[in-house]
Amino acid sequence: MRGRTYVLSGAPGTGKSIAGLQFLMEGVRAGERAAILTLDDPQDVLGQGDFLGFDIASEVAAERLYILRFQLDFARRFARATSPDEAFAELRSLLGSQPLGRFVIDSVVPFIDAAGPSQNAAISMLQLLDELGATSIVTYPGDLAGVYDRRLDPLVQRAAGMFHLSADLHRQRHIEIRKVRYRVPSNAPIPYRIEPGAGIIPAAEELRFHQEEAPSTNGRQRVVLELAPAEADQALKLLQSHYNVKLMNGAARRSTPNVPLSVMPARRAVDFPDAGGPESQNVAQPTRSGARVPFDAPGFRAAIQSILAADSRSMFSIVVLTTPPGELDRAGDVVLRTVRAVNGDLVAVANNQVLIYLHATGRKHAPYFVQRLRDTWQNVGHGELIVDTLGYPGDQERIRTLLNSLA
């Protein structure tokens, strides 16, 4: 619905930013002017465009697409403003006076976190979107079903549609319709996948696998697929890319959808991270006399390597903290009190620095932790903290170098 606001929620890595770029580029192709306000570095946005097959740089140069970025100290400046309207007035001026067809805010979190307990930030944001008249997408890195941050109530109530993107442990992705103000054929989850050069596209109907409890006498196991006849060819190609497949009645396959297949793995299960393998290891912060203490260098290195061995596609950030002289131990204690220990964050003191593993936290969300840490440090420490943030998998070479230095 043109001119309305939509919400995309979901954990980091589910494709919200990719969906936003696809939405914008469709508008640009239709002759609309589009803009995105993002937490990402503009180079990362260009990189995502390359992944999707979009020449974003050309659209920016032609002033058909605008990339705006939250300032690094946005939360502090926004919190100190006398009114949220100051920030939105600045945003309005940057967008110019020409009509805007599509607009993406990726994500709403900086406005909400910096506004304290008030709903004023969400209200001011919606007023701006109304004034722009653009069809808008606002992303939220979480789930708005059930219990959620009530500061988002104005957005939840006004949204024309809310869609939740999810991915399970086996990378099965679904779009769930949480709210929609118009009739849709079905509210069932929509399977999707993310592909280079295409982005988010519909996935084939989910396949249901039934496997025998025990191997058969000849060492093989039988797999029975229940799927729509129209998806048979696609499913067969998928199987043939991973397995040696023998059609037991190939000539009749097209007219008889329930033809049995004899399937023999062409690769070992270890070649496929989703096909079994070790469960994620439970790496926890060490304790001494009941209190949490930092890892040492070898312990932190082993912990990160264990996490990567359990799932090489993990997403996390490592914050490297260089402290003022004489403040290393104090900074370690502050960090231990600041991290989400129950959620899997880890802390180490090594190489005269404090190393912080932020579990399931992308690089663009790590600044929120850093800002919270700086605010705490101002009350208890002395001097300025020097912070460097590495994100996995984007900075995996730098992370590998860091881990090697801890050997």
Folded structure, characterized:
With 407 residues, the chain is of the alpha/beta class. It folds into 3 domains: 5-202, 3-Layer(aba) Sandwich (Rossmann fold), CATH 3.40.50.300; 208-271, no CATH class; 287-405, 2-Layer Sandwich (Alpha-Beta Plaits). It contains 13 helices and 19 strands. The chain has helices at 16-29, 42-52, 56-61, 74-80, 85-95, 109-114, 120-132, 153-158, 232-242, 297-310, 328-338, 366-380, 396-405, and strands at residues 5-10, 34-38, 65-69, 102-106, 135-140, 161-167, 173-180, 190-195, 199-202, 208-211, 223-226, 243-247, 261-265, 287-288, 291-292, 316-322, 346-350, 353-359, 386-392. The strands form 5 sheets. A 9-stranded mixed beta sheet has the order 3-2-4-5-1-6-7-8-9. A 4-stranded antiparallel beta sheet has the order 17-18-16-19, with helices on both faces. Strands 10-11 form a two-stranded antiparallel sheet. A hairpin with a 3-residue loop joins strand 8 (190-195) and strand 9 (199-202). Helix 5 (85-95) runs parallel beside helix 7. It is globular, with a radius of gyration of 25 Å. The termini are far apart. The model is unreliable at 205-213 and 250-281 (pLDDT under 50).
